[in-house]
């Protein structure tokens, strides 16, 4: 008996595969061929974003980095006090914990006040928690007028406490200044030095790396030997030697830019090597040869044809260079060779934690180091994820 050809045809005809969703996109009503075409014809930036979204640790780190820079931008508004405000009644006051339960009942967030006594033998101030003195938090309290970035006058801060009570969430320092406020202000200084230093080193690295890779010959030999000499010295002693030459009577702003320039002059070598290696591999490509035959000037070939071809790799190098700049400033300021009081940076704050006896008595003075560690880890994890995403066709 003959088999029904219509059924045979229906069995033989393969069922179309379901569309495959691209990373970060919804499944659209299109064919598989168009999906594959969209993937392989997507721009490099789009491919990097697709892969970066799948890297959870990198995305979490990116969120932390964004939060840190937002903190730096709005430090005055987020801080409960001005970073220079002193309270002589509360020197080395311990941190006050935010609580929500008082006498067994759930209440509005508050902190307990202090009861201060003195040790009869050492005359040191001893702070004890007064569990009968709850001080409730107030959001957007009205305070004395201050200026955001020295431009916009504001009369409210994000949070505070009622009346004349204190709010030292991370404790106070030797002059009775709120440590949390000083850390938030220090975030602006430390993170901005990282950006300024990387920006300067990027300009130097691209210029010298581009010349070394494109022209070769004598310029390449001179630049590469200079890089090897700079990298032969240990970073910290070299930073210390140059920073120690800064005049001690310089104003804070001049010292700030001097430290940024020092870090940039010693940190451009990695960027220069990346640029040189990429240009060496791209300068003989067809598009570069076509531009050269068309009469395009050499500096324009480097800036408009070669550099855009590996921008993603430069971004990765920059991301991984910022924490090195932050650590450089922290080390110099910690050793007293960088920024100095009254300016507030993480390195300046850690100067109070140089004495082991001080740390044993007031361990909260080490809290700024946790901000340094978190920032460096966030930048490194984000840079690693970005480096993996910069090669979209690796999988």
Written account of the structure:
- This protein has helices spanning 5-12, 32-40, 44-53, 56-73, 75-78, 179-215, 217-232, 235-243, 252-267, 269-282, 286-293, 298-306, 311-334, 346-349, 356-361, 367-389; strands at residues 99-102, 105-118, 125-139, 142-148, 152-156, 159-161.
- With 395 residues, it is α+β, with helices and mostly antiparallel strands.
- 54% of the residues lie in helices and 12% in strands.
- A hairpin with a 2-residue loop joins strand 1 and strand 2.
- The model is unreliable at 1-32 (pLDDT under 50).
- The chain has a 4-stranded antiparallel beta sheet, with no helix packed on it.
- It folds into 2 domains: 96-167, no CATH class; 181-389, MetI-like (MetI-like fold).
- It has 16 helices and 6 strands.
- The two termini are 52 Å apart.
- Helix 3 (44-53) crosses helix 16 (367-389) and helix 4 (56-73) packs across helix 6.
Topology, pairings included?
Blueprint: H1 5-12, H2 32-40, H3 44-53, H4 56-73, H5 75-78, E1 99-102, E2 105-118, E3 125-139, E4 142-148, E5 152-156, E6 159-161, H6 179-215, H7 217-232, H8 235-243, H9 252-267, H10 269-282, H11 286-293, H12 298-306, H13 311-334, H14 346-349, H15 356-361, H16 367-389
Helix pairs in contact: 3-16, 4-6, 4-16, 6-7, 6-9, 6-10, 6-13, 8-9, 9-13, 10-13, 11-12, 13-16
Compact description:
The protein is of the alpha+beta class. It has two domains: 96-167, no CATH class; 181-389, MetI-like (MetI-like fold), CATH 1.10.3720.10. The chain contains 16 helices and six strands.
